Amino acid sequence: MPRAPTSYPWEAVLEPGRDEELVATSGEREQAGLAEPIPDDLHPAVREGLEAAGIEALWAHQADALEAARRGHAIVTTGTASGKSLAFNLPVLDTLASDVAARAFYLYPTKALVHDL
Predict the structure, then answer these.
(1) Could you give the CA distance from residue 41 to residue 43 in angstroms, rounded to a whole number?
(2) Cα–Cα nearest to 59, from 27, 81, 29
(3) Could you tell me where the beta strands, DSSP code E, fall in 1-117?
């Protein structure tokens, strides 16, 4: 059984703000979304589900999140209604469809959107 890592790559970013509510802020200029084709190696059932939902392409950050999740741990931060749900669900759905022994556990904070503007 693989051992859990003793530290994660994002700990250095979070540590300075550990005693504060706000860890970091940044701003980016508005820009048009970049579309990426749905990866050919995505499980066929997941591809069919995307097509049935009318999703013909992924946003670049969703495709990047899929690839990052396939390599290991990943963090996705982006604004409201930008496609985060698909970004984090797509790797899970692909894994569950590809491996019948795989399981997923979702844990949501109950007040996650309280400070969302």
Answers:
(1) 6
(2) 81
(3) 35-37, 57-59
Residue 110, pLDDT above cutoff 70: no
Alpha carbon distance 51, 59 (integer Å): 15
For 35, the token pair is: 């579309």
Within 13 A of 100's CA, how many CA atoms are on the CB side?
0
- Under a CB-based contact definition with an 8 Å cutoff, are residues 62 and 86 in contact? yes
pTM value is 0.69
Side-chain-side CA neighbours of residue 19 (13 Å): 0
Eight-class DSSP state of 115: T
The DSSP element (H or E) to which 58 belongs, if any, is: strand 57-59
How crowded is residue 97: how many other Cβ atoms within 10 Å of its Cβ? 17
